[in-house]
Amino acid sequence: MIELSEREIQVLERLAKGERDKKIADELGISPRSAQHRADSALAKLGAETRFQAGFLYGQMIIKD
């Protein structure tokens, strides 16, 4: 099982909707740089090459649960 932090999950939920770092940051009350860092971390944990792929993989994880 892949362990994601709560913040990484929040960012992935928004990536799955196609949102950009600036909008994610505004919604979560964090800096755009922090949103980018969390997205990059989540991509690495999921083994995804793109943000789209990460959002898709996260969506698949939710469906399986």
What does this structure look like?
The structure is a single chain. The protein is mainly α and 65 residues long. The chain has a single domain (6-64), classed as Arc Repressor Mutant, subunit A (Orthogonal Bundle), CATH 1.10.10. 74% of the residues lie in helices and 0% in strands. It contains four helices and no strands. α1 (6-16) packs across α4 (51-64) and α3 packs across α4 (51-64). The termini are close together. The relative contact order is 0.19.
Secondary-structure class: mainly alpha
Give the uncertain stretches in residue-range form: none
Biggest pleated sheet: none
Order of helices and strands: HHHH
What general form does the structure show? globular
Total helical elements: 4
Helix content: over 70%
CATH superfamily: Winged helix-like DNA-binding domain superfamily/Winged helix DNA-binding domain
What would the CATH topology be? Arc Repressor Mutant, subunit A
Distance, first to last CA: 11 Å
The portion of residues forming beta strands comes to under 5%
What's the CATH class label? Mainly Alpha
Quickly give the CATH architecture.
Orthogonal Bundle
